[in-house]
Amino acid sequence: MTARPEPFDLKGRRVWVAGHRGMVGAALMRRLGSTGAEILTVPRATVDLRRQTRVEDWVAREKPDAVFVAAATVGGILANDSRPAEFLYDNLAIEANIIEASRRAGVRKLFFLGSSCIYPKFAPQPMNEDALLTGALEPTNQWYAIAKIAGIKLGQAYRRQYGCDYISAMPTNLYGPGDTYDLKASHVVPALMHKIHRAKSSGANTVDIWGTGTPRREFLHVDDLADACVFLMERYSDESHLNIGTGTDVTIRELAEMIAAAVGYTGGFQFDTTKPDGTPRKLLDVSRLAALGWRARITLADGLRQTYRWYLENVAVTTGAATPR
Ligand code: GFB
User: Which residue CA neighbors atom 5 of ligand 1 most closely?
Assistant: First the structure.
């Protein structure tokens, strides 16, 4: 790692949050509120980020100083597996369009967000940044992973060829307010929260969990992620992507038990082994980020309780999922 760069203070800068309606983008908006940055956003109906000229025209007109690339087509294990074309095409197009438009418009700094699924399926645990491209990917999310690896490489290429100050970070599995609760598209935390809430509400005594319950995952609250992103945008400038995580993981069964405790569900679980487990373990080595001075603050138990309160106020009421007794 090279010497620490001059801080890139966001105060007074025009900062575009691409993907501001998503869970990550919304958390970035909350976090940026205290930086004194002038936040720029554009709705999808105005600029479809998969359309190159739309993106280039908008960025040339708005002239951001800094860009967070939080826009992406995302989803859980089944959505990745069943919509490969969208996960590959949308993400390649979105990142290529934003990065090239930013170079053309003279954006000073750009932050690209990937995912821990970029690492090989059987990478040694915890996975450090050098594990990238050392082995075969997990088949269920290879499409998304390939697109995110291309995004990291694009930023690195722009650094080398054009001298652009573009950086990348790879968050572990995320959860928190603003997540997707549609069971066909969602990740495991919102899926289990929704299912366990419904079971408690209806008095059911079992909840269906995909796979064997033995895969291990690391979960980071999205507000911690946003804090790390602002920290790195202001302080990090180098070619290597950086991992963002908590450094600890749990099994899916343990996660289900923690969500049950947050919801107040006392029934059992049934494991549906016709559904995929995906990668057996995904734990990031976060020592490089820790050496820069950042660490996660929200414990999984606290984060799940807070997310369940958000769910009760924002999802349970609108989807008609009954409020637990
Ligand atoms: O969160 P998830 O969909 O993502 O699944 P991945 C994590 C684990 O939870 C898998 C299990 O072993 C699932 O089988 N699981 C149990 C469930 N019950 C459920 C359920 O009801 N819904 C879901 N969704 N999972 C994703 C990638 O992988 O991770 C994405 O596909 C992205 O590309 C994301 O990288 C962070 O961790 O398996």
Answer: 188
Closest by CA to 180, choosing from 195, 172, 191, is: 191
DSSP state of 127: B
Pocket of ligand 1 (CB under 6 A): 76-77, 80, 115, 117, 140-141, 144, 173, 186-188, 191-192, 209-211, 215, 217, 252, 275-278, 282
Nearest ligand 1 atom to the CA of 275 is: 14
Residue 107, φ and ψ in degrees, nearest 5: -60, 130
Residue type, 258: M
CB 110 within 8 A of CB 155: yes
Q: Ligand 1 centre from 187 Cα, in Å?
A: 5
Neighbours of 54 (CB within 10 A): 16
Task: Give the tens place of pLDDT for each residue, 210-229.
Answer: 999 999 999 999 999 999 99
Cα Rg of the chain, angstroms: 20
Read off the tokens for 205: 């005594």
Tokens of 68: 């967070």
The SS3 of residue 320 is: coil
pTM here is 0.96
